[in-house]
């Protein structure tokens, strides 16, 4: 059975629902939705694809998953203004972002940066596999090359269960 060697995390839908319901992000910035215009392609951190003209999006401040410590950052991210499909963590590398050059930033257990590399689209799977094979790497962020803004997080897929028929329908409490 084929399993991805890594797991990709978008912003959890439950967090987005909480922020949308509150009408403000976690830094108390009020949500001000806008409509995507022709020629704009804001990258959505909820669905991990670029937004299409006519979609309603909003820019929020967000603290991405990180081991903690002084290197943790909060930064601006676009998300859908309304409830959306989101992204399954087991979908592999996001197809909607695969054409983009990205900065891959690996963090260690103490949250320190252990590696930064700008990666071409064709190389991203190999570089991710190599980074996640390093025991000192705890988590990897994909970030925008110029602005450095957070896009999504990548973890090892070792905790992903290889689906086994035995589990299905097991009536445990
Ligand atoms: Zn979305």
Please characterize this protein's 3D structure.
The protein has 173 residues and is mainly beta. It is built from two helices and ten strands. It has helices spanning 13-22, 124-132, and strands at residues 6-9, 34-35, 43-44, 49-50, 56-62, 75-80, 102-107, 113-119, 139-144, 150-156. The chain has a five-stranded antiparallel sheet. The protein has a three-stranded antiparallel sheet with strand order 2-5-6, with no helix packed on it. A hairpin with a 5-residue loop joins strand 9 (139-144) and strand 10. The protein starts with 5 loop residues before the first strand and ends in a 17-residue tail after the last strand. The model is unreliable at 160-172 (pLDDT under 50). The site of zinc ion has 5 residues, from loops. Zinc ion is lined by residues 44, 46-47, 80, 84.
Domain unit count = 1
> If strands are numbered along the chain, what order do they take across the biggest sheet?
1-10-9-7-8
Uncertain segments are 160-172
> Level of helix content?
10-25%
Q: What would the principal axes of the Cα set say about the shape?
A: globular
Topology pattern, helix = H, strand = E? EHEEEEEEEHEE
The class by helix and strand makeup works out as: mainly beta
* Whole-number mean pLDDT: 91
Tell me the major beta sheet: 5 strands, antiparallel
E-strand count: 10
Bound molecule types: zinc ion
The quaternary state of the protein chains shown equals: single chain
What is the tally of helical segments? 2
Estimated radius of gyration: 17 Å
β-strand percent reads 25-35%
Beginning-to-end CA distance, first to last residue: 29 Å
């Amino acid at each position: 059975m084929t399993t991805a060697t890594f797991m990709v995390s978008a912003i959890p839908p439950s967090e987005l629902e909480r922020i949308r319901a509150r009408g403000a992000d976690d830094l108390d910035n009020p949500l001000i939705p806008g409509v995507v215009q022709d020629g704009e392609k804001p990258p959505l951190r909820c669905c991990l694809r670029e937004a299409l003209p006519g979609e309603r999006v909003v820019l929020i401040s967000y603290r991405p998953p990180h081991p903690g410590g002084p290197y943790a950052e909060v930064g601006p991210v676009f998300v859908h203004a309304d409830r959306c499909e989101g992204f399954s963590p087991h979908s592999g590398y996001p197809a909607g972002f695969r054409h983009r050059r990205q900065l891959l930033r690996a963090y260690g257990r103490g949250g320190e940066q252990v590696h930064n590399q700008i990666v071409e689209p064709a190389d991203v799977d190999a570089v991710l596999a190599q980074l996640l094979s390093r025991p000192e790497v705890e988590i990897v962020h994909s970030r925008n090359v110029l602005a450095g803004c957070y896009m999504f997080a990548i973890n090892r897929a070792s905790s992903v269960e290889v689906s086994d028929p035995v589990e299905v329908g097991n009536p445990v409490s």
